[in-house]
Design a protein that fits this description.
This protein has a domain of about 60 residues: Dodecin subunit-like, CATH 3.30.1660. Strand 2 and strand 3 form a beta hairpin. By secondary structure, it is an alpha+beta fold.
């Protein structure tokens, strides 16, 4: 059995929506394990002097929670310690 969680993040880029999405996902995966998908909830362009200056996306990321009996299998947590055999 897997249990997932959703979080909402916002990311910006001066060049494109696609770049904002890539940067947001890259940054999120530095601190969140098991990211499985993203839903783009909202897109916004900031304008200055009649030109697009910044592309912003609000997205909902889905990640599978670790530490369960089925998908744990002794993987290391962020501290490098094995979670196998840990008391629950």
């Amino acid at each position: 059995m897997s249990v997932a969680k959703n979080i909402e993040i916002t990311s910006t880029s001066p060049s494109s929506f696609e770049d904002a999405i890539e940067k947001g996902i890259a940054r999120a995966t530095k601190t969140i394990d098991n990211v499985r998908g993203a839903w783009i909830k909202e897109q916004k362009i900031n304008v200055s002097n009649g030109k697009a200056t910044e592309y912003q996306v609000m997205m909902i990321l889905t990640f599978v929670l670790g530490g369960g009996d089925d998908n744990d299998s002794g993987k290391s947590d962020r501290s490098g310690k094995s979670s196998k055999g840990r008391k629950r």
